[in-house]
Hints:
Layout lengths: L5 E8 L2 H12 L2 E3 L9 E3 L6 E6 L8 E5 L3 H10 L3 E10 L2 E7 L5 E7 L9
Parallel strand pairs: 1-4, 5-8
Antiparallel strand pairs: 1-5, 2-3, 3-4, 6-7, 7-8
Amino acid sequence: xxxxxxxxxxxxxxxxxxxxxxxxxxxxxxxxxxxxxxxxxxxxxxxxxxxxxxxxxxxxxxxxxxxxxxxxxxxxxxxxxxxxxxxxxxxxxxxxxxxxxxxxxxxxxxxxxxxxxxxxxxxxx
Length: 125
């Protein structure tokens, strides 16, 4: 994916197992928790392109959040704040080769940023 592409969508849920069953039955999504991310089942749409995660609902995370791939989280956060955004979470590692961050735009919408490469083993489910 390239800078500016939507790469991932997290959906906040209160019951991971129930949500996995619901979205799998409704849309045919393949849902599995990859090794090392057992509390974060990932979904993939039938097109094998669209995907995201089912994440625990919590304070500050009550609506789906899209993640945009960027070349540099630091540069993107600097540009975002120059244009009225507020950083909610600074660059944080996901793995040795990938990072994420969150900001809110001037209207209060939470937007996630993703930088790097994350290799997730395919599941047999």
